[in-house]
Design goal:
Low-confidence stretches: none
Largest sheet: 3 strands, antiparallel
Number of domains: 2
Order of helices and strands: EEEEHEEEH
Number of strands: 7
Number of helices: 2
Structural class: alpha+beta
Mean pLDDT: 89
Shape: elongated
Strand content: 15-25%
Radius of gyration: 22 Å
């Protein structure tokens, strides 16, 4: 069984829903949601509302810690490559995996293993 974890939303416990109410009759309290998995914020938040609460409270601090942009990033022909694939199951063919350049629209075929390898880089 998966380990249960708590929603990281700063105000999760303040929202009134049935699954947040815990305790015995006459001694009930609202509590932070606890689940084996969450769908928001990389699995750390139970709802988009809780994710937004956290970001409003801690977002500037997190961006400052990990590095705030001080100048614009530029997309060029050299850094515009990303992995993609054509889903072809309906035709009975194999899927086609490739790198595509979003500026030049050039495609370079790769294998499924290369597509699934998060460390694989295209040598340009």
């Amino acid at each position: 069984m998966s380990e249960l974890k708590y929603c990281q939303g700063s105000d999760c416990h303040t929202y009134f829903t049935q699954d947040r109410v815990k305790g015995t009759q006459g001694n009930k309290t609202n509590q932070t949601r606890r689940r084996s998995s969450f769908y928001y914020g990389n699995g750390n938040f139970c709802s988009i509302r809780c994710q937004d609460d956290w970001f409003r409270k801690h977002g500037d601090q997190a961006i400052d810690h990990f590095g705030r942009l001080t100048k614009p990033k530029h997309l060029t022909e050299h850094n515009a490559w990303s992995k993609d694939y054509d889903y072809r199951r309906y035709k009975g063919e194999e899927d086609r995996y490739y790198f595509v350049n979003s500026i030049t629209k050039e495609r370079r075929p790769i294998t499924e293993e290369q597509y699934r390898d998060s460390n694989y880089q295209l040598n340009t």
